[in-house]
Design brief:
This protein is of the alpha+beta class and 261 residues long. It has seven helices and eleven strands. It has two domains: 81 residues, no CATH class; 165 residues, Alpha-Beta Complex (Dna-directed Rna Polymerase Ii 140kd Polypeptide, Chain: B, domain 3), CATH 3.90.1110.10. Helix 3 packs antiparallel against helix 4 and helix 5 packs across helix 6.
């Protein structure tokens, strides 16, 4: 199977470049392929030339121990039926601003605004982090673990990563835009909403996260809550970055972009 990749550098240079890449071998498609556009402009069916069921009538299909209405269009891999599905994914490691009214149904304080980033590890596995903006000025980071969604206050993660002070978080969110009174007010509300937790150091925050997520993660029982919290942050928060300080700076940029939005 081969794919044709096309790209354009920018709008000022309309030249479209393309390259054909070999994606390797795929099994033979059963009987009939996917719909395609014929020369006449009408949809037609591309048949799999190498399949021995090609163009057989219903009677012949039964003689070959197949269903009389077999439509084909899939592959047999290790005895299982498989399909090729085309997926469009967001750009990796790139922050995207979202406005979806459906976000408001997640809770009484949720707003339609959020920012999202799909982080990809070196082994090409990915984790999507979504930062939801709340009406009270706070923000919640959403991630998935074993097909279940969880949300964590963003300030709890910022403190857990490097044990940053309130001043460091404030200056990192505002980014010297002191004339932006809206952003400054959001940063102050973000810090005030975190006071209810009473957690200050990085170890305290990691211990709190480990205690809350220990049952969910299923890690060894001899691990301390601190170890579990550190493992959680490393596994689900901005997984394309290794150093906690890099994760912290990236989260500050994400929070700042959410405030600007």
């Amino acid at each position: 199977m081969t794919v044709k990749l096309c790209w354009k550098v920018d709008e000022s240079n309309p030249t479209v470049r393309s390259v054909i890449k070999d994606c390797g071998l795929v099994p033979i498609m059963v009987r009939v392929g996917v719909p395609s556009l014929s020369k006449s402009g009408l949809d037609s069916k591309e048949q799999s030339v190498r399949c021995n069921l090609r163009s057989l009538p219903s009677v012949e299909l039964v003689r070959h121990h197949e269903e009389p209405e077999e439509f084909g269009g899939y592959f047999i891999i290790n005895g299982n039926e498989r399909l090729i599905r085309y997926l469009i994914l967001p750009r990796r490691n790139h922050v995207i601003a979202l406005h979806r009214p459906s976000f408001q149904s997640r809770g009484p304080s949720y707003t339609p605004y959020a920012v999202q980033i799909r982080c990809v590890r070196s082994d090409q596995s990915s984790v999507t982090n979504t930062l939801h903006y709340l009406a009270n000025g706070s923000a919640m980071l959403r991630f998935s673990w074993r097909k279940q969604e969880y949300v964590v206050p963003i300030m709890l993660l910022l403190k857990a990563l490097v044990g940053a002070s309130d001043r460091e978080v404030f200056e990192g969110v505002v980014m010297q835009e002191y004339e932006n009174t809206f952003l400054i007010d959001r940063a102050e509300l973000l810090l005030r909403s975190y006071k209810i937790y009473g957690l200050h150091s990085s170890d305290q925050c990691l211990d709190y996260l480990g205690d809350k997520f220990r049952v969910v993660l299923g890690l060894p029982e001899d691990w301390t809550n601190l170890d579990v919290g550190a493992w959680l942050v490393r596994k689900v928060v901005l997984v394309h970055l290794e150093a906690p300080r890099d994760k912290f700076r990236m989260l500050l940029c994400v929070v700042g972009s959410l405030g600007v939005q």
